[in-house]
Design brief:
The chain folds into 2 domains: 80 residues, Potassium Channel Kv1.1, Chain A (2-Layer Sandwich); 79 residues. 54% of the residues lie in helices and 6% in strands. The protein has 13 helices and 3 strands; from the N terminus they run H-H-E-E-H-H-H-E-H-H-H-H-H-H-H-H. The chain is elongated and about 60 Å long. The two termini are 25 Å apart.
Amino acid sequence: MANQSVQKSPAEPEPKFLSYLLSQEHKHDCYFMVGNRKLIQPERIGVVKKMLMAHSEVLRAELEESKLAEKDYVPLEDLYPDTFITFLKYVYGHDTTASLRFDKADNLLYVAEKYMMTVLKSKLSARLITLVSPDNICQLLNNPACYSTLELQSTITGILEYETARVLESPAFLGTSPDTFVKILEQKTMNVEEIEVWRAAVK
């Protein structure tokens, strides 16, 4: 169950250096075009390249001596601009993982998995364990990174096995992907008959 008191915990005030790093374009030496044009208007976002490279070997391999990153931009179609900004804030030293709302933590977990950032994944998994519930678990299951830590995987399995009926009744269930539907069916035990899962899927 989601802990509402944790959900509403206020984030720490952003330090002044963060605004400086995010907004001072003359300090940026690398650019990303973030967003899928089919869904939203992409945004060109400048970054301090070495700070990204210091946190992720994946980004280091992608950006080191990249003429595309310096002179044009690196396309990043699988992220939303606000998620990328949240990621940059973490990279620049402002860690708000303990106070992120469910949606933001879910989206940032995908980024942490994409860039193989183990420490960030662990922090986000710990946060999501306090927030995931039968009402939002289907949204989390649509994220391929949701099984990236054993602790979060255990929490997900517990909800799917012991609160299956509530999961099937949640509005998010109707938006599940085929892969998510299969994950639900693959549970060793559920507190409803398998036929009920199929009935919920064809409502």
